[in-house]
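Two entries, shown back to back:
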Amino acid sequence: MRLPGGLRSAAGAARGVTAPRRWGRVDADALPYGVTRYRLVVYPPGVGAGARLRVRAWRAWPVTGAVVSVGVGLAASVVADPLLAAVTGCLAYLGGFLALGASALPERRAVRQVWAEDPGESAALDDVVGVARVRLLGELLCAADDALADGELCESEYQGVWRCVYDQVGGLLAPDPERVDPVGRA
């Protein structure tokens, strides 16, 4: 089932992910027992394509780096001792991890993400409100993308919508002063 603004429900796909967008992405994951998890990732407004690429590469490195590490290790085993080849593969993984981590550091710190789970029929009011906020913010950004593409928004208006959602996600991440954990810490 297709939702407004480019979101997909869990009934429509096991994993609905919006295409890469300038502002980030929104996911809808179907989990067991009828639970749906929504995740919204928002980059800081105005971030460039290179910065977004570095952040995405950083997030993909655990799997990509493992493939690179095995490939380097196998290639090195042709000309070197197996122990040296394994060390070379590990160093390739670590080197990529450090290089990507350092190059994407400022952008990684500025990225905001929030998620909410819809437990289905056993949902409490707080669960429904959290899911509705995450979905609404994701749909708003998708609609702004469509409006910009159709010429209904200019670039500055689009950036304003992006900034507003970025700030709203920051507000959702801020600690709630009325919420206190059982130990008594805020």
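entry 2 starts here
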Amino acid sequence: MQAMTDERQAGVALGTPHANGAARVGVVVEEEREPRSRATRIALLAALVVVIGLWGFALVYSVVRKDPERLTTAEHSTIVQSCKTAVARMLELPAVRAPGGVPPTKAAVAARTAGETAVLTRMIAELRQVHPQRAATAEALGKWLDDWDSIIVARHAYALQVLTSRTAELVIPADRGVAISVRMNNYAKSKFLVDDCGTTTLGAENVNAVHR
């Protein structure tokens, strides 16, 4: 009589009975696969940890990294105040209105254009007095103001054309097929200026856009 034991023979298991009553003996596949399954799980877990680590590093780096063209608090405040003042000055200009649905005269449109352009020119001159200490900041601000100067040139041209042409248009200069106002506003957004100093807020791309 065979002794009873709790020990199990490794790799052997009783299968389903054969038709003649004999038990089928086979290798336990699960026991052989277990080490490989465990290794796969460990490898996947390690890969996940690496991915999460890289994502976390990228997130922290993007938050901690400082914009080399950043404005100081004082510089930012000065620029915003100048833009707000420009808007206030535009609101004081007589708006171009068409009484009774009659289109405004060419002279009225030209005068309004000139008035707005004078306000913007004054604003740009004020902003030229901001002299950032960081070279990268000064260069970026200077390029933004150079684009504003290009807008001024276009507005002066329009003010003259509208006096003689019914098809006169305020054409915003473009760089590689894209209006420079796009990059101007991208700069303003990156410096948290767009709400006060964007071309739309200041009505730079139109005439009579800012009025009471």
